[in-house]
Amino acid sequence: MDDIKNILGFDPERLAKDSDTFFAQIRKVQENAIAVTARAESADQRVVVEYSSSEGVQALHIDARAMRMGSKELAETILTLIRQARQEAEAKGREQLTELLGKNNSLITERDEIGKQLRNSTGDLQQNLQTATDMLDRLRTMFRA
User: What is the pTM of this model?
Assistant: First the structure.
């Protein structure tokens, strides 16, 4: 097993265990329908956005005094608040997922490295399969002659 670990650059047994945990927790999340919401408001509190990770923008409150802004400034304020609320909701979602899966889950801590190694391994595997196919073709040709 250590050879496989060295070749892949990660522990496939740990990945399998963490994947099982991950999918069990995903089922739990889906059953509980956890939706993360966040709120962002302008400095003067005249524009407020509520954002849900499951539904997007849930509410937009624009105080009548905010309508005195130019249309471009109001639009920029709304878009900025939507971005802020979305980023906060995503951060909260990541925190909840980390809580559910555990901080040392390899799907979180080694995600980029695992993806990179799997892509590299897949390329090597395809190359080896092509080499084997070419050799089989040459052997077939030799036996036919």
Answer: 0.53
